[in-house]
Design a protein that fits this description.
This protein is α+β, with helices and mostly antiparallel strands and 346 residues long. Helices cover 21% and strands 30% of the residues. The protein has two domains: 137 residues, Sandwich (Immunoglobulin-like); 186 residues, C8orf32 fold (Roll).
């Protein structure tokens, strides 16, 4: 889909492609990417944008700036929705992208049964460079799920293990690299795994896949204060979402079921909650099967290529941040003060 040079609004074709949803507790949010690339040379930019699912829909896009071309794309494997932009050899390259999204609370009934995994979900059982399913990961997953028969039982045992054996480490940059091999080595050495949301979600996903439970990380961004704890997200008065990226996870047991072990560990740290505290116990139960509705999902891309394919960072570990290349070099998306971008709630 081509976008006009100065401004683009979702037209009748794009809207028709968005599924009609019967949303409950529907909420709307708009936020903008404001990108300013100062490095000399031609630049390519990929921006993750909200995905259309049963619990959210992208309702509008408008863009402006001095770019040469811009278009909506999806990678062939994960179908991650992307705004791809090319800039000419200008001294300063600018784009402003306004995104509007409608979404709702996600609460999924937990029905235990002997579900047969359809072949169409095979992608979410496979190993990737950062998400292994053999060796020590498989041994550990089998230990954790010993005696568990169904997909739901196995996933819950793994979820509890992740919550109990990981902790939020504020020193880790961004969402964390989510390199499960390294994280399991840390567990073997220290007995605990420190990290951030991509780390904990990726450990959950790897352990699930290792015992036949389809699972995937879901990358997105926090857009308003969280309901269950003020410590989890942006403040009421804040409009700055530049560092509000967050990774959740989901597994399949008859349907896709949401989980968020990382926010349990974040609450535990930020509120100084001890084991057995009622608030911690509530968070553990609530965040297995529910998502606090303060967050918008981007995609499930993990160790894949973007569309069009990036030149430098291959495969892309995950796609939750703006990514840009200038003259064959990748800009550091974890340093928005040097790769100058802002994400602002409108």
């Amino acid at each position: 889909m081509k976008l006009s040079r100065r401004n683009f609004l979702l037209g009748s074709v794009a809207v028709a492609a968005i599924p009609k949803l019967a949303l409950s507790s529907e909420r709307s949010v708009s936020f903008s990417y404001q990108v300013n690339i100062k490095e000399r040379g031609k630049a390519r930019l990929w921006l993750p944008i909200p995905i259309n699912t049963e619990y959210q829909r992208l309702t509008g896009i408008s863009i402006s700036g001095n770019f040469e071309s811009a278009r909506l794309t999806q990678d062939p494997l994960y179908r991650a929705p992307t705004l791809y932009v090319e800039f000419g050899n200008r001294k300063e390259k600018r784009i402003n992208v306004l995104l509007s999204t409608t979404y709702r609370e996600r609460s999924v009934p937990l029905t235990d049964a002997n579900y047969r995994v359809p072949e169409s979900l095979g992608l979410y059982l496979k190993a990737t460079p950062h998400v292994p399913t053999t060796g020590r990961v498989k041994e550990l997953a089998e230990e954790i799920t010993k005696g568990k028969k169904t997909l739901l039982e196995k996933a819950y045992a793994i979820y509890e293990w992740v919550v109990e054996n990981t902790y939020r480490d504020p020193k880790v940059k961004g969402c964390g690299p989510g390199n499960v091999n390294d994280l399991i080595e840390i567990y073997e050495r220290d007995g605990k795994i420190g990290g951030k949301c991509a780390d904990q979600s990726s450990v959950f996903v790897a352990l699930c896949r290792a015992v036949g439970v389809p699972a995937r990380e879901v990358f997105g961004i926090r857009v308003r204060p969280a309901y269950i704890s003020k410590t989890l997200s942006i403040k009421e008065s804040s409009r700055d979402l530049t560092k509000a990226q967050h990774c959740r996870a989901e597994f399949w047991a008859g349907r896709w079921i949401p989980v968020d072990p990382a926010d349990v560990t974040k609450m535990r740290l930020k509120e100084n909650l001890k084991e057995g505290d009622p608030r911690l116990e509530f968070a553990k139960r609530y965040l297995f099967g529910n998502w606090d509705p303060h967050w918008v999902a981007f995609n499930w891309l993990r160790d894949g290529d973007l569309e069009p394919r990036q030149e430098v960072l291959r495969p892309m570990p995950f796609f939750g941040y703006p990514y840009a290349e200038v003259n064959g070099f990748a800009l550091n998306y974890l340093e928005p003060d040097s790769f100058v971008y802002r994400i602002v709630k409108v």
